[in-house]
C-alpha cells in the first residue's frame, strides 16, 4: 500500500468511527500524524542525499568566486572583473528579465574552461559534476553539417527539458568557433526577454559560450600595449569588447557568424581572455605543482616554462598554448 494512500485511508476511517470508537480514533489520528511526520522527514532526507533543484544544492558563493578568480586565474584581470560582476549581479537579481549570457573569447589555455569550472563550483554543490550543468562540445555533439536540422531540434528539446526540470540550469557550449553557423540560433527564443515560453521561464538559466574566435584581435591589442610600453593591467574591457563582438559576428568560420544572438543584443558580455606571458606560465606551474601535492619548486617550473613555445617569433612574449599543457609538462620535469 502506498504511503499517501495509507494516510488517506486512515483519515477517512477517523470520520467513519469517530462517534463510536473514540479510543480507536485517537490511535488512528496518532498514526496518521506519525506517518505525515515520517513522510516529511523522508523527503528532507531524500533531498539531503540526492541532488535536487533546491537551495541545499544550488547556492551562490559570491566570496568563494571572488577568491577563486583572484587566486587561481592568472593574467586575466579583465575577464576576472567582468565575470565577478556579471555573475554576482545576475544571482542577486530576484527577477532577471532574461538569462545570463556570457561569450568567452581567447586563445587556447588562457582560462575559458577554467572560469566556467570556477562559476560551477561556486554555484552548484556538486560543481561540474552537477546534473544541472549541461556541456556541449561542437565537434563531439554536432559534427555533421548534413544533420544540422536534427541538431537544432535536439538542442531545443535539451534546453527546454532541462530548464523545465531546473530553472537554475547552466549550459556551456565549447568550441563555438567550430560550430556550424546558424545552429546556435535555434535557442535564440530561450535567451530573449520573454517571461515564459509555453509555460517555461528561462530567466534564471545561465548560458556560456567558449570560443577561440577573436583571439587575433585580443592578442593584437595586448601586443600594441606592450610595444607602447604600457602596463598590461591598463587594458580595459572597452579596449576590446566592441571590436571583439564585431569580429566574432563577421567571422564566417565561427558558430556565432551573423547570429541573431549578437544581432539582437542577447549576449550580455563578450569576455576577452588575454594571451599569457612567461610570468603567468610560472604562476600556473607553481599552482599545478601544489595541486599535484608536490612542493612548488621555482627552478623546476622555470625550466619547464623556458622550454615552451612563445610568439610572436621576434618578440616571444606570449605562450603559444597558455597554461593548457603545463600539467603534462610538469610530469616530465619532476
Give the secondary structure arrangement, pairings included.
Elements: H1 3-17, H2 22-49, H3 62-72, H4 77-92, E1 100-105, H5 112-121, E2 133-137, H6 138-141, H7 148-165, E3 170-174, H8 188-191, E4 206-211, H9 215-227, H10 241-249, H11 260-263, E5 269-272, H12 278-291, H13 298-306, E6 310-311, E7 318-319, H14 326-333
Parallel strand pairs: 1-4, 1-5, 2-3, 3-4
Antiparallel strand pairs: 6-7
Helix pairs in contact: 1-2, 12-13, 13-14
Binding site for ATP: 106-113
Signal peptide: 1-19
Protein name: Torsin
**Cα distance, first to last residue?**
63 Å
Tell me about the biggest sheet? 5 strands, parallel
**Oligomerization status of the protein chains:** single chain
- Runs in which pLDDT lies below 50 for 5 or more consecutive residues are 1-20
Total beta strands: 7
Strand order of the largest sheet: 2-3-4-1-5
The chain-level mean pLDDT equals: 90
The SS-based structural class is alpha/beta
Proportion of residues in helical segments: 40-55%
Shape: globular
- The SSE order reads HHHHEHEHHEHEHHHEHHEEH
**Proportion of residues in β-strands:** 5-15%
Radius of gyration: 26 Å
| SS summary, helix count | 14
Protein name: Torsin
Keywords: ATP-binding, Endoplasmic reticulum, Glycoprotein, Nucleotide-binding, Signal
Subcellular location: Endoplasmic reticulum lumen
Domain Torsin-1A C-terminal: 276-333
